[in-house]
Amino acid sequence: MSEAETINERETLTYEEFGSASRELALEVLRSGFEPEIVVAIARGGLLLAGSIAYALGIKSCGAVNAEFYTGVGTRLPEPVMMPPLLDAASIVGKKVLLVDDVSDSGRTLAMVVQLLEAGGADLRTVVLYTKPGTVYEPTYSWKRTEKWINFPWSVLPVVTL
């Protein structure tokens, strides 16, 4: 399936499904025996899921890394890039970290951040809502696999303007 065809066929996630998915993923993390001490989101896509999973697991220690790869629907930079503000690297040394993003599409952003956090001394697992078949990084935990472009309830509408 071409990228254009994939974008025309869309997977739609509702807020209700998001709530269920985040609880299911938190339970999957617990059942695996991994007990994270810190939840780190890849902003912006992973922020809502990270917060939801942190609440479900009772974890108050949260952080975020800012990475950008997609610049629009089906358009991306040549490589993912880190952007400020940066995560306090000292806070993850020797800690069990759950890294959260919305989707492992190409997997390149996730792989880049995994490499960064592991090099910083984190014992790391990854969780996403969706995994795409062509990903170069297979997350530890994933709610669903899809080839389709995903309409997330928080990003499907246009930016608010006056």
Class per helix and strand makeup = alpha/beta
The fraction of residues assigned to DSSP E strands is 25-35%
Tally of individual domains: 1
Helical content band: 25-40%
CATH-assigned fold name: Rossmann fold
Could you give the count of β-strands?
8
Characteristics of this structure?
single chain, 162 residues, alpha/beta, Rossmann fold, 6-stranded mixed β-sheet, two-stranded parallel sheet, 4 helices, 8 strands, globular
Question: Explain this structure to me?
Answer:
By secondary structure, the protein is α/β, with parallel strands linked by helices. The chain has one domain (3-151): Rossmann fold (3-Layer(aba) Sandwich). The chain is built from four helices and eight strands. It has helices at residues 3-8, 15-32, 47-57, 108-119; strands spanning 10-12, 38-43, 62-72, 75-83, 96-104, 123-131, 141-145, 149-151. The protein has a six-stranded mixed beta sheet, sandwiched between helices. A two-stranded parallel sheet has the order 1-8. α3 (47-57) links the parallel β2 (38-43) and β3 (62-72). α2 packs across α3 (47-57). The longest helix is centred in the N-terminal third of the chain and has 18 residues, at 15-32. The model has no long low-confidence stretch (mean pLDDT 89).
Write a brief structural summary.
This protein is α/β, with parallel strands linked by helices and 162 residues long. It has helices at residues 3-8, 15-32, 47-57, 108-119, and strands spanning 10-12, 38-43, 62-72, 75-83, 96-104, 123-131, 141-145, 149-151.
